[in-house]
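P.,

For your records, the input lines for the assembly:
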Amino acid sequence: MLAAAVRLFNERGYDATSMFDIAESLGITKSSVYHHISGKEQLLQMAMDRALDGLFEAADEVRALDVPAPERLERLVRRSVLVLAERFEYVTVLLRVRGNTEAEQHALSRRRDFDTIVTDLVKQAQAEGGVRPDIDPATVARLILGMVNSLTEWYRPRTGGAEAIADALTRIAFEGLRTE
Amino acid sequence: MLAAAVRLFNERGYDATSMFDIAESLGITKSSVYHHISGKEQLLQMAMDRALDGLFEAADEVRALDVPAPERLERLVRRSVLVLAERFEYVTVLLRVRGNTEAEQHALSRRRDFDTIVTDLVKQAQAEGGVRPDIDPATVARLILGMVNSLTEWYRPRTGGAEAIADALTRIAFEGLRTE
DNA sequence: ATATTTACCGACCGAACGGCCGGTAATCAA
DNA sequence: TTGATTACCGGCCGTTCGGTCGGTAAATAT
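Structure tokens returned:
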């Protein structure tokens, strides 16, 4: 049911999706939906949590690695792409939330925490050397995460396709487009 | 009035913004708003057009340049950042529409046209040399534009700040983060 | 066989929304 | 000064929405 709701949220937007739509897509009535959940916002909350939990798990795994900071950064970027691909619809919901309710604001706050983790990693990588130090680390983190998050706009999950995208993205981010 | 509406659209989302909200922010009543415009959707239409017109103007200007394709690509990326900064709130509205109405679908279609322009430019740049040919041009275009468009999520317009962001972005995109 | 829990439904409610209409006051052209 | 145009308003309408409630039928436990 969460999956059905999230699919509709992404098709038409959260506000534009009615509880009737969700019920209809499950072949039951609106009243029956309320037998299983407490309200529309709970569905949103569960979806956002599923996405955020994946991202923080990735951050925890990478933090534990005993490799130089630039490589930890690259690993985290790559893992973020894979999480986004695995939990595609949940991450898409998360990235569209604007903070209209308390639950949404809490999700935004957790997103900012993740941004901070990446920013700190960029900072370390610049200090250790291996990542260009001439751009503000917060800007680097936002631009790279922006590129990752933009996948929700056009990437469509297929088995195995995520690694190819992760390769392309990390190549652009770390090596750049320019040859010679 | 368009400016006031667009500001609210971005604060709370298009659906979550009522005509009463727009009227209130202007110090007039809802009825008075309808004296000036035909409906809510017209406001959205005008905002999206303002953003798209800016992007296509940039594309036209760059197309007329007599420089190698890789440099035209870099110029277009940079100009896109500047358009996004100039028409920030309008572009933000544009990038959030999901195609729920006919007008939104038309805007999405124009966005795809712009994507195609960038993709073709990447293709030329790869053929001429100077841009790495080992990544699918459509993927390159989407990732770079994704990085540009992600600015709507955190960049806040200040006079002069756009060039610094454009520099950082094009440096990452063309030279990459890695040193040595 | 009976009691209890689970899944479901139809009917309804109050609120909010986009939009419309008839009318009034200010502005402006002649 | 008069006539027309423009800007504005209060009040209303039909619809849709999230959510509730009382009740039924099936599943499950004892």
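Two observations worth noting. Chain B has nine helices and no strands. The CA atoms of residues 37 and 43 of chain B lie 8 Å apart.

Regards
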